[in-house]
């Protein structure tokens, strides 16, 4: 493995550079995937049949909490990568932990929100609008869940191996993923919730 | 669920299939044990990360699927050969045309293309492997898991029966209550994941791993076509992912996306399906364009005419492929304005395609043409594909399309595009690159015989369908009365189908015969070709290039041969290669088991399977495998042995 010390650790080998570029390409595919779901949602969002409409079930409170948690976590993962570049193991682990806890909090609020919807009689099976809403939010939530497991695993690896081209590369890619989830959420916040509440 | 629901019963043909599956499986297991090949199979093939071997496995799978899909086609033609035929009942016929379409497009054309690109692209750009060799193996095993899962549907649980387009509400749980369409949504999802990873892998490979000096505008045309194709894959396949996910939710979890009540919208499926489905057509046709460019240029002994316009037209085609999807359902009521826009964009595709056709003709102009088997396929492709293209423009006119929508005319059109385009393309590619992989050529005489039988039978089969379609014979009908007058033309078409089967049998015999008797070649360049892959010895050592070539112009190998200078100026050094791994294979098996339980709604098994998938991912994440080095002494020895050269 040829290591180039002139660049950040995560870019230091040929393989690492390819992985980061490959992950950007993969994120392109993810963008198409979420765009498709948004298109489905916009097509179906007022096709509510006999079921509830967006205005009847959306509440701004939990959504604001979710938004705050996730946006903050995107900031803290940035701090984690910054600490990693400076070689500060403790700070990196700390910011990683904070990021994952914020993600966990987001997920918790989202689950409570889902339970509320179901209790109000709005389930995946109710109407086309609810189907597309649950699928869009659910897919984003599933990404967050996967991210929690992924991030936890990376923390273990960093603890064991320290900052190596491998762990640095993986953590950097994880941060790209996490920022991406944040971007998707901004679209959900604006075009699902704010539009639905209006 | 009872046993007689689990296994498909009541059809003598299916019983025959079950018996033959069991016999073939026993024969394979017994043969591997008797010849003590289990270890060889595991070490050399199941665990390989070598792009060439993965490519070969793709191609073998594709050939097997060609025969599975071909038998489906023959059964359809047998059923339609005479009026009021009772060979197949309507349900069985529905299942057969559905699996014929799915298998031919997704499990034959796609893997054949992906197999060739696996074999050729790293060689053409001077790379030792793809960017992510392990991921490449995962892609293959996911494709294979999906294909096998789909294939067992006809004996276990019943095949999908709503057409390869699986239009709602036809494919909903209400109108298609068997597990058939569950197989469709889940098997396609699994192999689609593999395809998406291949797309990512090849974009990175082509953009990041080219030999020094090979700029984008010096890349061989086949590599260019694969780059464009990979970009289409990355942008089109996620749409399929979502469409299949929603289908699964609708069928198995009671959601209301495509239902007829509660706000669901069945047309949404048609749109999603074709937003992926139309670019998919170009995913299987653009690489064939790349292959023909290589073949025609090599066997005309001329450089490709209009290289830049070739690249440009491919890029334009890839963009247009995303804005024409509604031409698949002009008659489903989206108004004159929408139809008009899609009509224009559809016809526009004929322009860049026409540019390509003329470029090939000009490449041949004043060339010293050599009529080898791959060249024959390229030459056969041009007129036949043009017929397909012209009828495509006829179909593109929305107002006229109301006349022949959903008739045999359409069936004839897309077979006239896809068979010369994709099938001739991959066969030309197989004959062309075969010596690179195995060190000998396929017998040319037998190859030409197979070509003539296939090309003539093809026209006998599909030309009558144009007339039948214009006479009003709709597609997907399993029988017709004598008064319609469709009998004679159908009979001719069915005779042609038998001819096609004979042609493909000759082709298989050709491969078998050549493996046993064809003379072995030591020269790595049997065709006197132009691109980089031919500068390596045949068969290729697994590290591809002992030294990195330096590229100064297009067709660098051709000019190196002419000037007598070597492309390779560096010293030999240690070569870094990835290690083999059994994980991709195991992951594929787990995915298949998971998919199987999902199809039958057996949630406990499905959850265990899903956990297995995550465990595999975690194992991979914690593993540290940095490959190994081949010492320079071994490299030099191998090169001397293969090339007989003094170093």
Automatic annotation (TrEMBL), chain A:
Its main location: membrane. GO terms for cellular component: plasma membrane. Residues 1-197 form the Heme-copper oxidase subunit III family profile domain. GO terms for biological process: aerobic electron transport chain. Keywords: Cell membrane, Membrane, Transmembrane, Transmembrane helix. The keyword Methyltransferase does not apply. GO terms for molecular function: cytochrome-c oxidase activity. It comes from the Bacteria. It is a multi-pass membrane protein. It is found in: Cell membrane. InterPro entries: Cyt_c/ubiquinol_Oxase_su3, Cyt_c_oxidase-like_su3, Cyt_c_oxidase_su3-like_sf, Cyt_c_oxidase_su3_a-hlx. The chain crosses the membrane at residues 21-43, 63-81, 93-117, 129-151, 172-194. PROSITE patterns: COX3. Belongs to the cytochrome c oxidase subunit 3 family. This is Cytochrome c oxidase subunit 3. It comes from Paenibacillus woosongensis.
TrEMBL record, chain B:
It is found in: Cell membrane. One of its GO terms (cellular component) is plasma membrane. The keyword Iron applies. One of its GO terms (molecular function) is copper ion binding. It holds the Pfam family COX1. SUPFAM superfamilies: Cytochrome c oxidase subunit I-like. Its cofactor is ferriheme a; Cu cation. Cytochrome c oxidase is the component of the respiratory chain that catalyzes the reduction of oxygen to water. Subunits 1-3 form the functional core of the enzyme complex. CO I is the catalytic subunit of the enzyme. Electrons originating in cytochrome c are transferred via the copper A center of subunit 2 and heme A of subunit 1 to the bimetallic center formed by heme A3 and copper B. This is Cytochrome c oxidase subunit 1. It comes from Paenibacillus woosongensis. The gene is qoxB.
């Amino acid at each position: 493995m040829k290591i180039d010390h002139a660049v950040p650790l995560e870019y230091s080998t040929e393989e690492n550079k390819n992985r980061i570029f490959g992950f950007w390409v993969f994120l392109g595919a993810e963008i198409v995937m979420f765009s498709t779901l948004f298109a489905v949602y916009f097509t179906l969002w007022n096709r509510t049949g006999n079921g509830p409409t967006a205005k009847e079930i959306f509440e701004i409170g939990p959504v604001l909490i979710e938004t705050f948690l996730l946006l903050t976590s995107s900031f803290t993962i940035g701090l984690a990568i910054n600490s990693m570049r400076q070689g500060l193991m403790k700070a990196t682990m700390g910011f990683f932990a904070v990021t994952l806890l914020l993600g966990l909090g987001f997920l918790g609020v989202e689950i409570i929100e889902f339970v509320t919807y179901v209790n109000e009689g709005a389930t995946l099976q109710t109407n086309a609008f609810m189907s597309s809403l649950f699928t869009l939010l659910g897919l984003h939530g599933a990404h967050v869940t996967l991210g929690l497991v992924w991030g936890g695993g990376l923390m273990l690896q960093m603890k064991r191996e320290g900052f190596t081209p491998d762990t640095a590369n993986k953590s950097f890619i994880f941060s790209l993923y996490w920022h991406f989830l944040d971007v998707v959420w901004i679209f959900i916040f604006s075009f699902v919730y704010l539009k639905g509440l209006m | 669920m009872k046993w007689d629901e689990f296994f498909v019963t009541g059809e003598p043909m299916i019983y025959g299939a079950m018996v033959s599956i069991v016999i073939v499986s026993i024969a394979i297991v017994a043969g591997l044990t008797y010849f003590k090949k289990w270890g060889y199979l595991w070490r050399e093939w199941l665990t390989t990360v070598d792009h060439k071997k993965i490519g070969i496995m793709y191609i073998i799978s594709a050939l097997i699927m060609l025969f599975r899909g071909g038998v489906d086609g023959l059964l359809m033609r047998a059923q339609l050969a005479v009026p009021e035929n009772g060979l197949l009942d309507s349900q069985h016929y529905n299942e057969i045309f559905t699996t014929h379409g799915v298998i031919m497009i997704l499990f034959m054309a796609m893997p054949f293309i992906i197999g060739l690109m696996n074999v050729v692209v790293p060689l053409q750009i001077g790379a030792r492997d793809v960017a992510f060799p392990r991921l490449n193996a995962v892609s293959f095993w996911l494709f294979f898991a999906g294909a096998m899962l789909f294939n067992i549907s006809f004996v276990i649980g019943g095949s999908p029966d709503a057409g390869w387009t699986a239009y709602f509400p036809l494919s909903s749980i209400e109108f298609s209550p068997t597990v058939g369409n569950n197989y469709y949504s889940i098997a396609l999802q699994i192999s689609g994941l593999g395809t998406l990873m291949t797309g990512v892998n090849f974009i990175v490979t082509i953009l990041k791993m080219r030999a020094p000096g090979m700029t984008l505008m010096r890349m061989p045309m086949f590599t260019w076509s694969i780059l464009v194709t990979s970009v289409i894959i990355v942008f089109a396949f996620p749409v399929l992912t979502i469409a299949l996910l929603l289908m699964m939710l609708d069928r198995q979890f009671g959601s209301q996306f495509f239902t007829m009540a509660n706000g669901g919208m069945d047309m949404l499926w048609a749109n999603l399906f074709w937003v992926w489905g139309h670019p998919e057509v170009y995913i299987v046709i653009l690489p064939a364009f790349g292959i023909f460019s290589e073949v025609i240029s090599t066997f005309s002994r001329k450089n490709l005419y209009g290289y830049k316009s070739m690249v440009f037209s491919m890029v334009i085609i890839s963009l247009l492929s995303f804005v024409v999807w509604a031409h698949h359902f002009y008659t489903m009521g989206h108004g004159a304005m929408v139809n008009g826009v899609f009509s224009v964009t559809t016809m526009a595709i004929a322009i860049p395609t026409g540019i390509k056709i003329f470029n090939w003709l000009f490449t041949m102009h004043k060339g010293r043409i050599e009529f080898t088997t791959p060249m024959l396929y390229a030459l056969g492709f041009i007129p036949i594909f043009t017929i397909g293209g012209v009828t495509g423009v006829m179909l593109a006119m929305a107002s006229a399309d109301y006349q022949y929508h959903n008739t045999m005319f359409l069936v004839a059109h897309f077979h006239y595009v896809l068979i010369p385009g994709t099938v001739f393309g991959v066969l030309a590619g197989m004959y062309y690159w075969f010596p690179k992989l195995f060190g000998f050529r396929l017998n040319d005489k037998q190859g030409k015989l197979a070509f003539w039988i296939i090309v003539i039978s093809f026209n006998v089969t599909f030309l009558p369908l144009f007339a039948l379609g214009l006479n009003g014979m709709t597609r997907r009908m399993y029988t017709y009365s004598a008064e319609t007058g469709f009998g004679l033309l159908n009979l001719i078409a069915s005779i042609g189908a038998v001819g096609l089967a004979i042609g493909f049998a000759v082709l298989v015999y050709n491969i078998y015969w050549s493996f046993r008797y064809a003379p072995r070649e030591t020269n790595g360049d049997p065709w006197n070709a132009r691109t980089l892959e031919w500068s390596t010895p045949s068969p290729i050592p697994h590290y591809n290039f002992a030294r990195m070539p330096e590229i100064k112009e297009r067709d660098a190998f051709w000019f190196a041969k002419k000037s007598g200078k070597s492309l390779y100026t560096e010293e030999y050094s240690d070569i870094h290669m990835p290690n083999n791994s059994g994980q991709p294979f195991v992951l594929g098996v787990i995915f298949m088991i998971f998919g199987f339980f999902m199809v039958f709604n057996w949630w406990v098994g499905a959850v265990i399977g899903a956990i297995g998938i995550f465990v595999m991912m975690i194992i991979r994440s914690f593993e540290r495998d940095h490959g190994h080095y081949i010492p320079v002494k071994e490299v030099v020895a191998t090169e001397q042995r293969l090339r007989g050269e003094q170093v």
